[in-house]
Design a protein that fits this description.
318 residues; alpha/beta; 6-stranded parallel sheet; 10 helices; globular
Length: 318
């Protein structure tokens, strides 16, 4: 099968197209023909030698988490999801081959039926970002009415889902983004959208209950500055790997609660998100689509830092 591989970590140029063996499924896995694969920041960090690169057991390695595709083999004959069904979900990279490939073996607990209202390209932009946003906003922050939630990078992959989930569950949503995205953040459901290029959020926001930190301190000490806008005992949830190594101690020193968040490829939660996508209460936005062979260009575009929503690879024809 065709796949995007890397022989070592480095710049996007380490990504190349190659012919590799098709994975074989074992036990409760599905074999899926991948139609589209989402691109995520953790993959760019890992490719660059950060992120979870230390867990890559051997090279050449195939990156990728998100996928949308068609079932080729099922775990067993009577499984409710059949050969030919359209599914989407998350791979277990780097424990297994990633989704930047024409075929993927994936555990049955990590997939869900693809929403009929979404194309494969749209669906491939959902799993990791939406599950991360759901975990932070719904499971950890427990978004509810009268709660004030500040979401940094609200127009990004995780952020645009976080804004929608927080609004859906009744929270008062404040989101930061660039000038071009302020209006779009309001359309997504933010009650207050702040252009971080012209306004210091701490000058216009205070007393929030929760900060969804999708930036950390890699840009303008966004994480540290967020501690000052939380109410006493408020909660900050940090997601980007390595973005703010001291955040737990910093929050504790300020009398605040803090936790990181690591996403799991939970198909049952993804099925719940699917219903919100089908109803139109939540939507996915795909900013750019690249052919599989152009994975390096997709990573370059992601690392430029101006993506609205998601970037997706078109892997195979439907």
């Amino acid at each position: 099968m065709r796949a995007i591989v890397m022989d070592a970590t480095g710049t996007p140029d380490v990504l190349r197209t190659a012919e590799v063996d098709k994975p074989g499924k074992v036990n409760s896995e599905f074999l899926v023909k991948v139609i589209a694969a989402g691109i995520n920041p953790i993959e760019a960090k890992t490719r660059a030698g950060r992120g979870i690169s230390a867990a890559i057991a051997s090279y050449p390695a195939v990156l990728g988490n998100d996928f949308s595709g068609i079932v080729v083999e099922t775990p067993y004959e009577a499984h409710p999801i059949k050969v030919g069904d359209e599914v989407y979900g998350m791979s277990s990279f780097p424990r297994a081959t990633g989704s930047y490939a024409e075929f993927l073996a994936v555990h049955s607990l990590s997939i869900a039926r693809k929403p009929k209202s979404l194309s494969h390209v749209e669906a491939a932009g959902v799993p990791l970002a939406a599950l991360t946003a759901w975990g932070m906003v719904v499971e950890v922050a427990k978004a509810h009415e009268s709660q004030r939630i500040l979401i940094h990078a609200g127009s990004g992959g995780v952020g645009h889902f976080a804004v929608q989930f927080a609004r859906y569950f009744g929270a008062h949503v404040i989101a930061t983004g660039s000038e071009r995205n302020v209006g779009w953040l309001t359309e997504l459901g933010a009650h207050q959208a702040i252009d971080y290029t012209s306004t210091r959020f701490e000058d216009v926001v205070s007393g929030v209950d929760v900060v969804i930190d999708l930036v950390g301190n890699v840009h303008d000490d966004t994480g540290s500055r967020s501690l000052g806008v939380l109410r006493p005992g408020g909660l900050i949830i940090n997601a980007p790997t390595g973005s703010w190594p001291t955040f737990l101690d910093d929050a504790a020193s300020a009398g605040l609660r803090a936790t990181s968040y690591k996403v799991a490829g939970d198909g049952s939660t993804l099925a719940v998100i699917s219903r919100l996508l089908e109803s139109g209460d939540v939507r996915v936005f795909v900013d750019q689509v690249f052919d599989l062979d152009d994975a390096a260009a997709a990573h370059t575009a992601l690392e430029a830092g101006h993506t609205r929503g998601k970037i997706v690879l078109k892997v195979s024809d439907y």
